[in-house]
Design a protein that fits this description.
Layout (H helix, E strand, L loop, with lengths): L1 E11 L2 E12 L3 E5 L6 H8 L6 E9 L2 E2 L5 H7 L1 E4 L6 E5 H13 L5 H14 L10 E2 L5 H15 L3 E5 L7 H14 L5 E6 L12 E6 L2 E6 L1 H10 L5
Helix pairs in contact: 3-5, 5-6
């Protein structure tokens, strides 16, 4: 079973950014996509989640054998997809606790006892070394870059999807925050999960060991390999690709 993109093409404002890209992420594996700015990495993940500004002009997106190409974003989420956004939005007046409970209820299709859910949330926060007071803060309001990324990893832990798409989750993190975020990713990792990690840098891969690394240039995968490929990019850059 896998998340499979078959010859996917994506347009943004009438311009084709992704050109017939194919990629398969099996359960139990961590795949990394690396590439320079403007190579189409964020376009790809937004199209995967069904963002309305990104138009799929060709190909299919298959999730464990089911075609989700035409499904709405909330349906893709319920089917098992999760996106940790590069730039998570602020939601003033909504606490993290209430936000996560509402999202969890939407996924499960039933109301949750607030007290029981809060205990569950506290357990997840303890596992991720997140201060308990974090749950009472408004979503991303006044958060540092590291706090926003921790909030995204907390969502991942609570929602427990089948496939996690992490768009530059390591961006802007100091060493301590990077370790916490990496530990959250490794806790999620299992034989029943698939992880697609988008990054510019090799440093998060010192903590999260990938099964496959893909190099993306100009809207397509130009090379795939093992973890050593990321180290090669770190040393030589993208010019050779």
């Amino acid at each position: 079973m896998s998340l499979f993109l078959r010859t996917v093409s994506v347009e943004v404002e009438g311009k084709e950014i992704i050109h017939g890209l194919s990629l398969e992420l099996p359960k139990g594996q961590v795949h990394v996509i690396m590439g320079p700015n403007g190579s189409g990495k964020s376009t790809l993940v937004n199209a995967l989640m069904g963002h309305p500004s990104y138009t799929l002009t060709g190909g299919q997106i298959m999730l464990d054998g089911e075609d989700i190409t035409q499904r709405a974003p909330d349906e893709r989420s319920k089917a098992g997809l999760f996106l940790s956004m590069q730039y998570p939005p602020e939601i003033a007046g909504v606490t993290i606790s209430n936000f996560l409970r509402m999202v969890y209820e939407a996924k499960m299709g039933e109301k949750q006892n607030p007290v029981v859910f809060y205990r569950f949330l506290q357990e997840k926060m303890e596992e991720l070394q997140i201060d308990p007071t974090f749950a009472k803060r408004y979503v991303n309001q006044g958060f540092s870059g590291g706090e926003k990324k921790r909030a995204e990893i907390l969502q991942l832990a609570v929602l427990d999807p089948t496939y996690a798409i992490l768009d530059e989750t390591d961006s802007g993190l100091d060493v301590d925050a990077l370790k916490v975020v990496s530990e959250g990713i490794n806790r999620f990792r299992s034989e029943e999960k698939g992880i697609l990690l988008i990054t510019h840098y090799n440093r998060i891969l010192e903590y999260v060991t990938p099964d496959v690394v893909h190099i993306m240039i100009d809207g397509n995968i130009v090379k795939s390999g093992g973890a050593e490929l990321a180290k090669d990019i770190e040393e030589k850059g993208y010019e050779g690709y």
